[in-house]
Amino acid sequence: MGYLRLTVSDVAIAWFFSLTRKLDNILSCLVSQVLILYRNSYA
Q: Superkingdom of this entry's organism (predicted)?
């Protein structure tokens, strides 16, 4: 049972890290879009 719990937690940790990496990608895309709009409006 302990082994099963270990694998479940490993999967949860891996899923959490992949989710945060995806969120980081989305956030960086949004930030770059905002910076481009900001630069264009003050060009």
A: Bacteria
pTM for the predicted model, two decimal places: 0.53
CA–CA distance, 41 with 21 (Å, rounded to integer)? 30
- Taking the C-alpha atoms of residue 15 and residue 19, their distance in angstroms, rounded to an integer, is 6
- Give tens-digit pLDDT for 5-43: 778 888 999 999 999 999 999 999 999 999 999 999 986
Contacts (Cβ under 8 Å, ≥6 apart) of 3 = none
d(C-alpha 11, C-alpha 19), whole Å: 12
Rounded to an integer, what distance in angstroms lies between the CA atom of residue 4 and that of residue 11? 11
